[in-house]
Write a structure and sequence with these properties.
- By secondary structure, the protein is mainly alpha-helical.
- It has helices at 4-44, 56-59, 61-75; strands at 87-88, 92-93.
- It contains three helices and two strands.
- The protein has a two-stranded antiparallel sheet with strand order 1-2.
Length: 95
């Protein structure tokens, strides 16, 4: 037979675990949402990030293929400096 303290401890532990799982799910959803918004933009601007591969699944296979195709088209240029003319004064993108 468990004492009242042990029962309360187990209930608190169970509640804290459930809350932590809920918060982790919220954080994961936010990260995936921002990745869905930012990855195509960053790829278009040829900006690399170390977390890209972790979130490619959220942009969808079609978007990944499009990003790869655009990258291949950009790499087929003659002068190899296509990305340099996109930066204006180091702060703004020239679109």
């Amino acid at each position: 037979m468990q004492s009242m303290d042990e029962e309360n401890d187990e209930e608190v532990w169970h509640g804290a675990t459930a809350y932590a799982q809920k918060q982790a799910n919220v954080c994961k959803g936010m990260a995936e949402g921002f990745a869905r918004l930012w990855l195509p933009f960053l790829d278009d601007k040829e900006i690399t990030c170390e977390w890209k591969n972790k979130y490619l699944h959220v942009v969808g296979q079609e978007a990944v293929q499009r990003m790869d195709e655009e990258k291949n088209e950009d790499n087929s240029g003659e002068d190899g400096e296509e990305g340099l003319d996109r930066v204006n004064n180091g702060l703004e993108w020239d679109d």
